[in-house]
Write a structure and sequence with these properties.
The protein has 295 residues and is mostly beta strands. Helix content is 1%, strand content 50%.
């Protein structure tokens, strides 16, 4: 649907610098919604977990690396959450994987030991997908930094067994430098796509768009925007730019082979309230009342 469905969560994660810090990314895993949140002026950022059944916050954990306080746009793949984290000057970044398979309301995500170290580049957002080539499943990971994208290909191992994201497969530059979240996905014909989420704010318009790109692994290139689609967010505690927009947390949930949902969040928790949108299929919109629809 082009219009988001509004959801209200309860929780009060204490953030030392709420004025300069805000939600950076969102992803869905089962009955949980995961948020990345930077922490301007401090050494660590946060991963926040919301339960979509109880509509409450259940976890707030620090990102693991000293002086890397800016987790960004992120994506879930299988049982793993992939999160890029930048240092305070946005000049270096790390990409971590969290194991979500054992996560409960009392058990937080487990941080994996492997990942990607980007010594000379930031990564404000990253996306990941899996695809099959010659009967081997690979992962393609994209690290986005102000219009520049580096693509990493796995070695054929599952994420649970060190997929070997060590070298850049290819790099590309796109015209849009304002994506705060990107996501990758693969269709049933093994065509890979990238979606960039942005909020167009000329003159205070606060218009939300999702841009679709094709990724060609043979030619090692990214297409121009195929379509760009306008979405309309619904607001809760805040209206205007601080309300629910792709500028803050944005992402997608793959429902099945022919269906996906988009996600958006507001800038910050307001008191103990936090609002999100899910852009649902028309069939799901009819069944949703106060909770996320599950297919």
């Amino acid at each position: 649907s082009e219009t988001g469905t509004l959801f209200e969560f309860n929780g009060e994660p204490w953030i030392p610098n709420m004025v300069e810090s805000h939600v950076q990314g969102v992803a869905r895993y089962g009955n949980y919604l995961l948020l990345s949140h930077n922490n301007k002026g401090y050494s660590h950022g946060f991963i926040i977990v919301l339960n979509v059944e109880s509509m409450k916050m259940v976890h707030k954990i620090c990102t693991p690396d000293e002086h890397y306080n800016h987790p960004g746009g992120m994506q879930v793949i299988g049982d793993y959450l992939m999160v890029p984290v930048e240092n305070s000057s946005y000049s270096q970044s790390l990409i971590h994987f969290y194991d979500l398979s054992m996560m409960t309301d009392s058990e937080p995500p487990k941080n994996e030991t492997f990942g990607i170290t980007r010594e000379f580049d930031g990564a404000g957002a990253a996306g990941i997908t899996n695809y099959t080539d010659s009967e081997t499943e690979y992962y393609l990971l994209a690290a986005y930094n102000n219009g520049a994208i580096d693509f990493y290909k796995s070695n054929g191992n599952p994420i649970s067994n060190d997929p070997g994201f060590q070298e850049i497969l290819f790099s590309a530059t796109i015209s849009c430098e304002t994506y705060d979240s990107i996501c990758l996905l693969t269709d049933v014909n093994q065509q890979i796509y990238m979606i960039g989420f942005r909020t167009y704010n000329l003159g205070g318009s606060n218009e939300d768009y999702a841009d679709l790109y094709e990724i060609d692994l043979q030619k090692k290139c990214v297409s121009q925007v195929i379509p760009s689609r306008h979405f309309y967010t619904e607001h809760g505690g805040f209206i205007g730019l601080a309300g629910v927009h792709f500028r803050w947390g944005a992402g997608l949930k793959i429902v099945n082979d022919s269906s996906l949902n988009f996600l958006a969040t507001q800038r910050n928790f307001v008191g103990d309230l936090f609002y999100t949108n899910t852009f649902l299929d028309s069939s799901e919109v009819k069944t949703v009342t106060t909770k996320f629809a599950e297919v």
